[in-house]
Write a structure and sequence with these properties.
The chain has 92 residues and is mainly α. Helix content is 72%, strand content 0%. The protein contains 3 helices and no strands. The protein is rod-shaped and about 95 Å long.
Length: 92
């Protein structure tokens, strides 16, 4: 006695086994699709978390006015608008 399905003369599997095979294949394909969706979601969360971590490491961006005000407070002399613009462009 063998566990293999009986094959008819024309080489086709019995209908019950063929139907079961199709159901198993459909379920497998569904699981693969669900896994792909899950992986995309997780990847998106990881990318956002990494971006947040990088943002925490670097100091917040400051406007030209804040840079000028800080330099006046440090040196006591006003800074020209041109030097403020050059600092802004170098930070971008």
């Amino acid at each position: 006695m063998t566990d293999e399905p009986k094959v008819s003369k024309n080489g086709d599997m019995p209908p019950k086994i063929e139907r079961l095979r199709k159901l198993v294949a459909a379920r497998f394909n569904q699981q693969v699709a669900e896994k792909a969706v899950w992986q995309r979601r997780v990847r998106g969360h990881l990318v956002r978390a990494l971006a947040d971590m990088r943002q925490l490491k670097r100091p917040p961006r400051q406007s030209g006015i804040a840079i000028a005000a800080r330099s006046i407070a440090v040196s006591g002399s006003p800074v020209s608008a041109k030097s403020v613009q050059s600092v802004q462009h170098s930070r971008r």
